[in-house]
Protein 1
Amino acid sequence: MGADRVTLLTCAAAGRRVAEFVSSLAGQVGLAEGPAYRLRLAADEIVTNIGVHGYHGRPGPVELVGGVEPDAVWLSIIDEAPAFDPTTHDPGPRLAAGPSHAGEGGFGLFLALRGLDDFRYRRTGGRNENTLIMRRPVDTTARPRRTETS
Amino acid sequence: MAFQARMYTDSETATVTIRLVGDLDSGSAGRLNELIAEASREPVRRLVLLMDRLSYLSSAGLRCLVYAHQKLGPGTDIVLVGTRAEVADTIRLTGLDHSVIMQDPADV
């Protein structure tokens, strides 16, 4: 099984590299515009959250690994920050507060998880592994493959 | 796509218009916040954001809308014109569409 992989550092420019990686992955399988946009948004938000909260604003390593299955495109985001499962984040209070809320943040993980078809988290080898999944029409001619970025 | 923002002010109508181009994310949100802060130095009745060439909006961009709401106050209408479908979906998911006016270009 082949793979796309890249490793980057969390910083202001990380969003650009995430966008390029997702664009390449989506383009390889002809993922539709809407799902490709939501996959980019989810990956951007997860990486941003890792940088801000996991690494506390300091540059830290994040590995992107992308792959294609006959019925799905997946992207794993792997970091070395303290354990954090995004599915434990409760966006309810922020969404209920509206724009007059004193803080301005709190939407990122909600947007990330809401736009995906599936999401999996696991802690392995002292690292967080977030896997983002978008379903696609089954392609019976495609062979499974991986794409990685470090 | 590189982010660009250009601001135009009509003092007679207290209307500030900002044209947004490209990706509004954590790397570019600061630029828009700077313009909003600059606009807030004078009374603003209406803030118009021309969105038709804005190709991407992350939560950092959403925070700009929240910032504008807080900085300009409840007496300022925030109008988003020509927002693309995916960007509009992001705004609606968070409920911020209830705090702004979303218009098609033909309605302006």
Protein 2
Amino acid sequence: MKLSTILMLAFTLNLSATGFGQISFEAKNKSIRDVFEILENGTNYRFFYNDDLISVDKLVDMNVSDQNIEQILEKLFESTGLGYRVLENNLIVVTPEGEIQQNLVTGKVTDASSGEGLPGVSIVVKGTTTGVNTDINGNYSISVSNADAILTYSFIGYVLQDVPVGGRIKIDVSLAVDVTALDEVVVVGYGTQRKSDITGTVASIPKDRLENSSNQNIAQAIQGAIPGVMIQTSSAGAAPDEVIMIRGRNSILADNSPLIVVDGIPYSGSISDLSPNDIQSIEILKDASSAAIYGSRGSNGVILVSTKEGVEGQIKISYDGYYSIQKYAFLPDYMDGAEFYDFKMKRFPGALTNSEKEIYDSGTWTDWLNTGLRNGASNQHTLSVSGGSNNTKFFVSGNYLDIKGLAVNDNFTRLTSRINLDTKVYKWITLGSRSQFSFDDKSGLEPDVSDLFQTNPLTKAFEADGSQAIYIWEDDHYFGNPLQMTLYDNIDKSYQIISNNYAVIDFPFLKGLSYRINSGVTARFYDEATYIGRNTKIGLEAKGSAETSRARSNNTVIENILSYSREFGKSKIFGTAVYSYEKNYSSRNSLEANGFPHDFLKWYSSAQATQIVPDYSFSESVLMSQMLRFNYVYDNRYLATITGRRDGFSGFGSNSKWGLFPSVALGWNLHNETFFPFKDVFNEFKVRLSYGLNGNQAVGPYESISRLGEFNMISGKQTQAGYIPSRLGQENLGWESSRTLNFGLDFGIFKNRVSGNINVFRTNTTDLLLNRSISAVHGITSITQNIGETQNTGFELGLQSRNVVTSDFNWSTSVNLAFTKNEIVSLYGELDENGKEIDDVGNAWFIGQPIRVNYDFVWEGTWQLDEAEEATKWGTKPGFVKLKDFKDDGSLNADDKRIIGQQDPKFLWGMSNSFSFKGFNLDVFIHGVHGVTKENTLMTDETWADVRRNTITKNWWTPENPTNEWVVNELYAERMSGILGAIYEDASFIRIKDVSLSYTFPKTFLSKFSVNNLRLFVTGRNLATFTKWRGLDPELDSQHQIPLQKEYVFGLNFEF
Amino acid sequence: MLLLLIFSAACSKDLIDEKPPHLITSETLFTNLAGFEAGLNGLYAQVRREKEQAYGSHSMMGSMFTFGTDNATVNHQDIGFIMTAMLWKNNNNALNEENEIVFNWLYNVVNSANTIINQAENRDDIDWSGGNMTEAENKDRVISEAKAIRAWAYRHLTYGWGDVPLSLEQSSGTTIRTDWERTPISQVREQIIADFLAAEPNIGVEPSLRGRITKGAIQHYLAEMYLVTGKPDKALEWADKVVNTPDYKLVTQRYGVRSNRPGVPFMDMFWEGNTNREEGNTEALWVFQFGLKVIGGGQCMVRRIHVSRFWNININGVRPLVHTYERGGLGYSRFNFTKWALDNYEPQDDRFSYHAIRKFYVLGDEAANAPYPADKLPEGYNYGDTIWCKWDPDITYTTRARFDWPFSRKAEGVDPANMNEPYMNTDQVYLRLADTYLLKAEAEYKLGRPQDAANTINIIRRRSNASDITADQVNIDFILDERSRELFLEEHRRWTLLRTHKYLERTMAHNKNGGQNLSPRDTLYPIPQSVIDANLTRPMPQNPGFD
């Protein structure tokens, strides 16, 4: 029944008349349709009917005087097969006679606050697949088969309502904005909780950032969306590396990345293997209390990812797809052939070789970046089907991602498919699975971009016949072609299976008690092979070289979760107990072979190679945990959570394997107190306080064991197996512990026109696992120890504001910002004569300073002509670098080094603005990172002996150009007293990360095609960056790598 | 109830115990003789690093012992010690990475040796059986080899850095020290001598495995240690023990792989296939083992460091010379002869002959160069023509980067199939009898027996057709000149000059690209800043002039 179409047309007439009366009119040879029109013109009645009804075109003669409407219609519909029903407001619905028996419910859905009609609200008869949407004015009409049916009204951003029909034929509903989302259920780890009951600091990724389906991975969706979560793109390319850090750097030793939990199971794979389109929600646990349930794993925060599940009653088929083109955002200005020639002639003319001269004279130098970079492109397609019947729900999806990166041959293909199933076997037992298969293909090697940057341009990339030159520099065979890797035969594939399965048993004998067993198995297989043939320098010299390897990594998790949830009067309790076991295993066997008889068979002929080196590597670790959590809520006002977790990790010393991690958190929903005086302003006002201890294992297995490393010898050309001490272990190596105190405030103002949260925290991490540099006299210069203490203090603010809310135009803004101050509180506890703790200068760790600082000599400028005399005393001269002699003792030594800024940002922020007008939506997301100082490694003229490498153009010092910005173009000009002066720059930046314009077709239009949703979008990524940084990119780690890309994405989603 | 259930659940201790099947610890390795042999192999592989990379692929660990002296100067500059040896002054500083790398490496050797010694001496669960020797002999030999190597490492450390911390115990994770003290050099040298003396009786005249130290090498080092500690009588005694060992004989006749080609006896021992004792090198006391594309083969840098960039010689816009096996392979010419070192020979001296020092190249056509390509002919040249090297004027800062500078053919050696191979596969003669003769001469001279010294020196000179000298010609400078002629590229020239207190004088006189920048403080290298910084609880004094 396309009744809604007619209804919409009907409502376009302005009918407001009321009152009943007897009717008179005459009609000769008119269609029934015409009679309706006469009646509508002369009375307050309006007729609704389906245009497809042929019977309404039947011609009739009518002569009516002073009859009521029933009498008239009775006569009019005689032997037409039409029936009717008169509704409230003089609406008359005309249908074929049989259908009139159904209950037809009509009504209007309005916004509770503005009273305006809400278009696009979904109305479903509960337990069926019958559903309609409201029209642009909020009106709807739906048939229900029985008068006891319940209608579910739902609309994104509004509180869902279930309304029993109860025999009514007109139901008007006003939906309240779900701004506080107070009763939203949030995944909190080993269970879910109502948001209003949460005591810890849990942040959810806004839905719209997840639904921006041009994300290649979830990190892109998280970046800048949550205060205190830093995502850094540390390397670009087809499969970029994203570093995630929550609330700053706690640990000095490498790993500060949070634990990622997918569907309840710790995830050990790469985040790039999760299709963002499969993700239902992402929650981030930031404070000790919320993360404490993950004990030893939680000190860097926890990211909880839930994949989509089917919704009962609605079969949804949806497609998301995009195509994008990529271009580099910025390239440093490396010298071209002519500039390089000038540079070399000034610096060391004797070193110019013939072939360089020839290429210079002929002007045929190579723009290496041009040969190795290209415009990238990517496309992604996701098809998913979800739905469910009474006892079983399913979500099935397939995703294909194909990226051609900016560097030639840098390709990445990913295929994932997912099946999520939940089924209630009996009333008391539910089984389910979250399973994914993914396939990654990174085959093909891109050129070494660092080489592309730095290769001498006075060389040739290709021979006359178009083949790649093996030796690019006729007079210097040291150099191979920086493009040679593109000629390697390369396989780099991996296959991953993740299967997380669960069973939930709700014990019938004790209400609220349930047991859940999770089993997670991740298996990843790697298939890698490279053959370097004689068409490259390396292959030619090695007579063919191959490396092949197969690897397997496994992660097995078994979790037993017992939970008890019950309400007693005003009290709600929720208890959780967990016993879990996790094992990580990896092994790899590989073969390296050199000296092949020919290139025909590549690695397949490894057995015929002259040198064959097999290898086998292995690693295994086990983590066992016991956890108890107890939540208590009294009267929705007072909230408390107590958690304790005990973890045992195989990698620690035999006496320090186990750690205990307790936490406590309190919350107070002030707005639910009768005395709360600002109820008219604040619809939510919740304060939270938490304190707890987390651990960090921070190290891999085997670190506590002193061991020997392979160091082989030969004798008479025969291998003699050898070992040397390679690592010092500490028997008592144990957990790193983080104590976090968090004060939080969640608020909503004016019915959540403005809502937000504020968190202030302090984390003290003790027993840091440090790779501490020790005196070389030990023969080994580093040892992993539990030492010292660091402190992170921070302030985080998240704000959402709906600036303009009208039926047509909406503008909302979301801002988050975080300040983090990181400092080393203590190291080894060794005091100097003044009682002040001694810094560890060797490791550049200073008490009271951030963990990662730049510690170096300070570039003061350039020795100028009028300082020649002073320069001579230093054994240097005008034009050369002037490093600051802080001690003013005429020599540069360790005491003249200074801390030059910190390497982790002090301040991060993100702001998104969303404008919508009718179906159009414009989202602009800006991200800022401030307070970072990094060495600009491009700022150097160290071009190897005899000027054999390229560098960027600079403002070189000359007597005529007495700049302090850079030095003269001369060997050792960057050195003073043999010390290379490094340039440190502010790497703060503000980046327009995403600008996305989308158009969503009106439902009323789409419903004609049985399409639920159709959205087209264009997104621009990394469109502009504002920074003082002069390197490749302030965000990337290395400045000699594939540049960051600007990306333009064109995509569409539809659903039916 | 629940609490009890969770927290008292069996901790399953077994499940989280580590029993790594793939790792080796000193407890598991040092349980029998084979384990100790593997430990010694690792130790010798570390020792061999002297001829391997130090700072990137540019430099060599042993450069700091050998170059920047009166006979070896910087030709192609770069970084690390290569730059230091040219510029000295503030460039020789505590932050210099190569200085740190070399210092750290030597203590790495010390710790490996200490580990073997401690394990062998202190454990009673070791199965020492094996080979033809008794268990006690096996044990003594293992300890002795490790002690000899420890002494070898401290010898370098004392010459290089003066007073150095003396560590004689295996390092352990639970005893990290932040209060190391610099032991006076005299005390460290006492330990060196004690270790060599303890080792000497248990080490054979022939190495226990090709590549290992011999009794002769230990005796030689004892002689040198007694010279540097001012006991020439003892030095003579120990030098004589080496010289008088019948199995150690100077090579005076042609032999081995090139014996049917033109050549001189002096050079035969440096060709691949000839360097080891069992290959005919009766003069060898210690030979470092290298091999290309063999596991554990090492990466010998000597050629790369020294051989000239003849391939860059440019005549009228043409670079005529290709790489051939005969020309020895790819070199980067970081350190070359000083002009003085080349002028130091008599013309007829075999050690100055074309067979010992590359002084010209003959342009080869395809047949002559086969299987390598023909040389390219500059205008006016024909195949068969000779391109001469020059060593005038001297290498200075402005004239450095000379492509046509002569080089010692001791450094030749390349994989015939790959002329671009960066490393060499030639086993390196590390210590040989001729050096002992010259130590002996030095001891004799110090003891006031110049005639004996002259006689001893003449033994060496006659082998190479140099003219005999007389007693009145003998003085310390002559001995040093002779050592340069005989042992260029082999001896630790800097150590020799420091031992004889001639370093500054001679280097400043003869080394024109670096010598002029030297000052007295440069007779020691600075203690690396990282070592000073890591000594948190006790200030470690820096060498004078480096503060």
